[in-house]
Automatic annotation (TrEMBL):
InterPro entries for this protein: SBP_5, SBP_5_dom
Organism (species): marine sediment metagenome
GO MF annotations in UniProt: peptide transmembrane transporter activity
Solute-binding protein family domain span: 15-265
GO biological process: peptide transport
Any one Pfam family match given in the protein's UniProt record, by short name: SBP_bac_5
Name this protein carries in UniProt: Solute-binding protein family 5 domain-containing protein
Length: 352
């Protein structure tokens, strides 16, 4: 849920039938931020103007025009020609093609999300922690990062993004097929098993699913890929109805608690619950860390939780994405503006 500070007098002047001005706010702004909405021509462009009444330092850029250009190829061409200053939705291949450009730079920042393989710990073979560990050892993380993501991802196998409180680099898994086979045999699945692997229909997820399918086949797990519309997939996932899933999770607020709860606390009925991982030790540790006010003790709690989660959790964390943009060299300080995207994005930092 997004929220913002509004001027109640302005909003209430446009109230209709008790809607608190909600209909009017669809196309107007009444906020206290550095910009106000001047124009919104749907599927064409949005125009933001500097707020003359802004309480802070006035933004250096007085007008921001956000154009709706659906095709990434069109964005790339216009960026190269100088018709636009920033391209938001380039593909990884397109971004890599700009790395030697004299006029355009590729600006990157660690993304505020995780990409994972989730296993239903209440279903068949995945009830055994050794099978879950075997899956983690079967995955070729480097191939996914370098080939699927074209390098725009970070090998981060924990739920805490880089830079967050409690984060310490901790990547215990790598592709080790022989070790995975031993774990499968110890669990009684030397001959493997069949499983349905669900993901959505985006190109990236489809490609990830094929790589994971090929990896799992090497240890005898026969994964049948089922592509679903995201709405259908998540509806079923929220009902604990999937055996295996490839998906992502975005950060709600920039604190370790925002990731520990969904990934390790089944009581909040988010990801751990959807994967039927009812681990009270992990849930207790999440709740205690969230309440702890001593910074050193809290930090150690997240270390203990991460180490425990790596061993017993039902997730194979594939990577932390890297957000990237094509940016004209005429634009200055965009890296500062985008630092922390998508939790924080401050265009007042930008100038030309």
């Amino acid at each position: 849920t997004l929220s913002g500070i509004l001027n109640p007098k302005v909003v209430q002047e446009h109230e209709v039938d008790g809607d608190m001005g909600q209909a009017w706010l669809t196309d107007h702004s009444a906020g206290a931020g550095p910009y106000v909405l001047e124009e919104w021509d749907r599927k064409i462009r949005v125009v933001l103007k500097a707020n003359e009444n802004y309480w802070g330092e006035a933004p250096k850029i007085k007008t921001i025009i956000i154009q709706d250009i659906p095709e990434s190829t069109d964005q790339l061409l216009r960026l190269k020609k100088g018709d636009i200053d920033i391209a938001f939705d380039l593909t990884a291949e397109q971004a890599n093609s700009l790395k030697d450009s004299p006029d355009v730079s590729v600006v990157t920042t660690p993304g505020q999300s995780d990409e994972y393989v989730g296993m239903n710990a209440g279903w068949g073979p995945f009830k055994d922690v050794r099978v879950r560990q075997a899956v983690k050892y079967a995955i070729d993380y480097d191939a996914i990062i370098n080939k699927v993501m074209s390098g725009f991802a970070i090998n981060n196998q924990q739920f805490l993004p880089i830079g967050y409180f409690g984060y310490v680099e901790n990547n215990p898994y790598y592709q080790d097929i022989e070790k995975a086979k031993v774990l499968m045999a110890e669990a009684g699945y030397a001959d493997g098993f069949d499983v349905e692997l669900v993901t959505n229909t985006t190109e990236r997820r489809r490609t990830e699913a094929v790589v994971v399918q090929e990896n799992l086949a090497k240890i005898g797990i026969r994964a049948e890929i089922n592509l679903m519309q995201a709405s259908q997939m998540y509806a079923k996932f929220r009902q604990q109805g999937l055996q295996m899933i490839i998906a992502g999770w975005g950060v709600d607020y920039p604190d370790a608690d925002a990731l520990a709860n969904p990934f390790a606390n089944h009581r909040v009925k988010q990801l751990a619950w959807r994967c039927v991982w009812y681990d009270d030790y992990a849930a207790d540790l999440v709740e205690a860390a969230g309440k702890e006010i001593n910074e050193d003790r809290r930090f150690q709690m997240y270390q203990d939780l991460t180490n425990y989660w790596h061993i017993y959790g039902p997730f194979a964390m594939m990577y932390q994405p890297i957000q990237f943009w094509g940016v004209s060299n005429k634009v200055k300080n965009y890296d500062k503006a985008a630092e922390g995207y998508s939790v924080h994005f401050d265009l007042t930092e930008v100038y030309k």
